[in-house]
Design brief:
Layout lengths: L4 H7 L2 H8 L25 E6 L9 E13 L8 E4 L6 H7 L1 H12 L3 H7 L11 E5 L8 E8 L2 E6 L16 E10 L9 E6 L3 E4 L6 E9 L13 E6 L5 H7 L16 E7 L7 E8 L2 E6 L5 H4 L2 E6 L2
Parallel strand pairs: 1-2, 2-7, 8-10
Antiparallel strand pairs: 2-5, 3-4, 3-6, 5-13, 6-7, 8-9, 10-13, 11-12, 11-14, 14-15
Helix pairs in contact: 4-5
C-alpha cells in the first residue's frame, strides 16, 4: 500500500480512473464502428440526448465544446449514471488496453493471491499519462425508467463516457459495455448555463450546503465544487438527488453509496430510494447544473463517498405542497 502513496498525493482522483476504466471491455475501442442507433444528433434546442436501454450509451459520437446540456433517459431496469473522463491529448481506449490492462491484471492477480503489498506495488507500473485524466462532470445516479437533465462545461478533446455501478454479480457496468468514446470538437456550443433556482456548494471541509427552501415544480440546481479531493474509496465527491420513501433506511443508503463496500453501488439499490440525477465529479472551481421537476415529499442530497453524515455530505429536505 505504501508504494501507492506518492501517486495518491500528487494526482488527486487518479485511482478512480484506474479502478473504473481498467474494467472497460476491448470491444469498446474507438476504432469500432458505431451502431446505427448511435448516429443521433443534438436536438434543435441544443440538448444532447443520451439513452440507456440495457448496458449501453446511445448518444452522438461528437459534441461541441463549451456548455452542453444532456438529457439522460434511463430506459433500463438498473440504476445508472454517466461520467465524462477527459483523456490526455493523443490517448485513447487503445492505449488503455496496451499500457494499463497488463499491470492492472498482474496487480489484481497478486492481491487475489493474498500478496497485497506486491499487488499495489505493481500498480506503480501504470503509465504516467493515465493519471492526467480529468473527471469533467456528468449526471448523478438515475433510477430505472427515470430521466435527468445536466449541464456542464467541456473543453475540446477525447472523452470516455462511463458508468461503474455494479451488477448483482459485482461486475462494473463499464465492463459490460457502458464505456463509450466521445469527441468534444473545436466547434463552440451555443448553449448557455441555466439560471439556478437553488445554489448548492460542496467541499471536503464544509460538505453539501444550499440556500433554501426548495419548492415544488421545476427547479434548477447549480453545484459549485469549492474543492475536489480523493476520499477513502479513491473517488471524488459529487451531488446526487434522491427521493425518499417512508420506508427508506438512510444508513443503508449511506453504505450503498460507497462502491468500495462489497454491497455498495450494486444492483439493486436500497429499498425506498429513487435517484433523480445530479452532477457527477467536477474539478475544483467548476460549476455544473441539473434540472428536475420536484413533487411534494422527502428528499436528500448525497455524495458517492464513505461516511457522508460525518462529512456533511448527506442532507435531507422536504418539499411542501
Amino acid at each position: 500500500m505504501k508504494a501507492l502513496q506518492p501517486i495518491f498525493k500528487s494526482h488527486g482522483n487518479e485511482f478512480k480512473i484506474f479502478i473504473i476504466t481498467a474494467f472497460i471491455l476491448h470491444s469498446c475501442g474507438p476504432d469500432k464502428k458505431p451502431k446505427s442507433e448511435e448516429k443521433l444528433v443534438v436536438k434543435k434546442d441544443n440538448i444532447v440526448q443520451i439513452t440507456t436501454t440495457a448496458m449501453d450509451f446511445i448518444s452522438p459520437d461528437t459534441i461541441p465544446y463549451g456548455w452542453n446540456t444532456f438529457n439522460y433517459q434511463n430506459k433500463s431496469s438498473e440504476t445508472h449514471f454517466f461520467l465524462l473522463d477527459k483523456y490526455p491529448e493523443g490517448k485513447t481506449i487503445q492505449d488503455t488496453k496496451n499500457e494499463v490492462f497488463p499491470p492492472f491484471d498482474k496487480g489484481m492477480n497478486l492481491i487475489n493471491e493474498g500478496k497485497t503489498e506486491a499487488g499495489y506495488a505493481e500498480f506503480n507500473n501504470l503509465p504516467a499519462w493515465f493519471f492526467e485524466v480529468v473527471f469533467s462532470g456528468g449526471s448523478g445516479l438515475v433510477s430505472p425508467k427515470k430521466n435527468s437533465t445536466t449541464t456542464v462545461k467541456l473543453e475540446p478533446g477525447y472523452y470516455i463516457m462511463e458508468c461503474y455501478v455494479k451488477m448483482p454479480n459485482g461486475k462494473f457496468h463499464s465492463s459490460m459495455g457502458m464505456a463509450k468514446p466521445i469527441i468534444v470538437s473545436n466547434q463552440k456550443s451555443s448553449t448557455s448555463p441555466p439560471n439556478a433556482t437553488t445554489k448548492i456548494t460542496i467541499s471536503s471541509s464544509e460538505g453539501i450546503n444550499y440556500n433554501g427552501p426548495i419548492n415544488k415544480g421545476q427547479q434548477v440546481f447549480s453545484v459549485e465544487f469549492k474543492d475536489q479531493i480523493t476520499h477513502e474509496n479513491f473517488v471524488g465527491h459529487d451531488v446526487n438527488l434522491v427521493k425518499l420513501a417512508d420506508t427508506t433506511n438512510l444508513e443503508a443508503l449511506e453504505q450503498w453509496m460507497n462502491w468500495a463496500d462489497p454491497k455498495g453501488l450494486i444492483t439493486p439499490a436500497p429499498e425506498g430510494v429513487t435517484f433523480l440525477g445530479g452532477v457527477n465529479d467536477c474539478p475544483t472551481g467548476s460549476t455544473g447544473y441539473f434540472t428536475v421537476n420536484l413533487e411534494p415529499g422527502n428528499y436528500a442530497f448525497i455524495s458517492e463517498v464513505p461516511n457522508t453524515v460525518q462529512k456533511g455530505m448527506l442532507k435531507t429536505f422536504s418539499v411542501q405542497e
